[in-house]
Specification:
The complex is a heterodimer of chains A (116) and B (114). Chain A is mainly beta and 116 residues long. Helices cover 0% and strands 55% of the residues of chain A. The N and C termini of chain A lie far apart (36 Å). With 114 residues, chain B is an all-beta fold. Helix content of chain B is 0%, strand content 63%. Chain B has no helices and eleven strands. Chain B is globular, with a radius of gyration of 14 Å. Classes of the chains: A mainly beta (116), B mainly beta (114).
Chain lengths: 116, 114
């Protein structure tokens, strides 16, 4: 299996809702990443997990809460989001042969999030 | 602060042409540079990764070069096809005062016309 999968593909939520995004990979990668991509902009790094531990948090607001239950699974819990948080959320994974961000990253298809 | 730029922002070419996409970065102390393609509304597909010690990488009709000292990389696409139409992004991995980082350029939107 050489894919990174993400569910759901689309998500619409209100500002008071709680929802979660899910990412899964079965390539044996030990690093997983969350990125946020606004329309017509490049992706921006949010969080990095290495060996199931949070290693990088790019000063992301606490309404985004990542979780890595095991080496294959990465979640992003969402609560009290704002309309400006609407974006494509991308998950990626990589091996850890080198320091985390220096390895080739493989991306999932993304979850299109709309906050009303 | 590392900044990554890509020129041109958009490019339209007839099928069969060879073309070059450019990526520039301001801090030459990078660890590697990766090229991706992104189809509209989709995730990113890794095309090529060049380590800082390498000068170029090739995969099929794609060839990426890296000149770290001048802060430039090019992606050469030979014999372009309509299926190559996508946005092409470069990204650099580096270390700054805050630790490791990974920054994308804004992308070049390529259209290959049949």
């Amino acid at each position: 299996d050489t894919e990174v999968t993400q569910t759901p593909k689309h998500l619409v939520m209100g500002m008071t809702n709680k929802k979660s995004l899910k990412c899964e990979q079965h390539m044996g990668h030990r690093a997983m990443y969350w990125y946020k991509q606004k329309a017509k902009k490049p992706p921006e790094l949010m969080f990095v997990y290495s060996y199931e531990k949070l290693s990088i948090n790019e000063s992301v607001p606490s309404r985004f809460s990542p979780e890595c239950p095991n080496s294959s699974l990465l979640n992003l819990h969402l609560h009290a989001l704002q309309p400006e948080d609407s974006a494509l959320y991308l998950c990626a994974s990589s091996q850890l042969e080198l320091a985390t961000l220096y390895n080739e990253q493989f991306f999932g298809p993304g979850t299109r999030l709309t906050v009303l | 602060k590392q900044e990554v730029t890509q020129i041109p922002a958009a490019l339209s070419v007839p099928e069969g042409e060879n073309l070059v996409l450019n990526c520039s970065f301001t801090d030459s102390a990078i660890y590697n540079l990766q090229w991706f393609r992104q189809d509209p509304g989709k995730g990113l597909t890794s095309l090529l990764l060049i380590q800082s010690s390498q000068r170029e990488q090739t995969s099929g009709r794609l060839n990426a070069s890296l000149d770290k000292s001048s802060g430039r990389s090019t992606l050469y696409i030979a014999a372009s096809q309509p299926g190559d139409s996508a946005t092409y992004l470069c990204a650099v991995a580096f270390r700054d005062n805050y630790g490791q980082n990974f920054v994308f350029g804004p992308g070049t939107r390529l259209s290959v016309l049949p």
